[in-house]
Write a structure and sequence with these properties.
The protein has helices at residues 2-40, 104-119, 140-169, 181-187, 192-201, 205-217, 245-257; strands at 49-50, 84-86, 93-99, 124-130, 222-223, 225-230, 236-240. The longest helix is centred in the N-terminal third of the chain and has 39 residues, at 2-40. By secondary structure, the chain is α/β, with parallel strands linked by helices. It comes from Candidatus Woesebacteria bacterium RIFCSPLOWO2_01_FULL_37_19.
């Protein structure tokens, strides 16, 4: 009788102990993640996702537990010396795009941003900053470093030529062969040997990371993350996703009407 009683008790305890073990393992994992975030400092790259057309607010990009919160558009960095600009740098409005070279929605948005600059000549300038989502696009970091090497070798023109070229040829979603980068650099007029030396050095990684942190501070959680900045009034507007030109036109016209 005593043996049966003990056996029944053990049968009841086993699932309870199993659940408790799973819970303990989960708690330890959560604690480890928080420690990692605190030790690393800044914002970790865990919340970014691709933001397609019609994505609306970036609420669909859940943050992992223990991750630091993202900022807001009014904290966006103003025009910097190392920024890459298309259009008049003295334009009243800035379209600041945080982008990922392997993001298919960024590829789709690229001509839209150019259309904004063309339609608002002298009024809107396009500023390109890096926001590589390395959890889903492992090649995007190196591609971002590549276009920074193009900037070092050939200035703003070199940067934009290689950026345009990469968006033109990549199938997106890690589809570009990184071994092709020197050839692409040569195709846009860069010295392939000097380009490869720069890229292999890894010296541009810090700039790419600084751009990413800048985007996170400004509330960007997906790509393309677009911020309209009115340099006259100081007002900002975060527009996530590869939305059509008409959406940007509505916002720009509204902001330009303000004195």
């Amino acid at each position: 009788m005593a043996l049966k009683s003990k056996s029944g008790l053990l049968e009841k305890l086993v699932p309870i102990l199993l659940i408790a073990s799973i819970g303990l393992a989960f708690a330890v994992g959560m604690l480890w993640q928080k420690v990692q975030n605190l030790e690393g400092g800044g914002t970790t790259r865990i919340a970014g996702t691709q933001a397609g057309a019609g994505s609306g607010a970036q609420a669909g990009n859940p943050q992992a537990a223990g991750a630091p919160s993202f900022g807001s558009a009014d904290q966006v960095d103003k025009l910097r010396q190392d920024d890459h600009i298309r259009g008049d740098k003295n334009a009243r409005m800035l379209l600041i795009e945080y982008s990922d070279l392997e993001c298919p929605f960024c590829k789709r948005f690229h001509p839209t941003a150019q259309q904004v600059v063309d339609e608002y000549k002298g009024q809107v300038a396009w500023v390109y900053r890096h926001f590589p989502l390395d959890q889903i696009h492992q090649k995007a970091d190196k591609e971002a470093e590549a276009v920074e090497c193009a900037y070092e070798l050939a200035g703003n023109d070199g940067f934009w030529k290689l950026t345009d070229k990469i968006f033109e040829v990549t199938p997106s979603n890690n589809g570009l062969d990184l071994d092709d980068l020197p050839k692409l650099a040569g195709d846009v007029g860069l010295n392939q040997s000097a380009f490869k030396t720069c890229l292999d050095s890894g010296k541009m990684a810090q700039h790419v990371e600084a751009d990413f942190q800048s985007g996170a501070k400004a509330g960007v959680t997906g790509t393309p993350g677009n911020i309209l900045l009115d340099t006259k009034t100081g007002k900002t507007k975060l527009i996530p996703g590869a939305l059509p030109f008409e959406n940007f036109k509505t916002e720009i016209d509204s902001m330009l009407k303000e004195s």
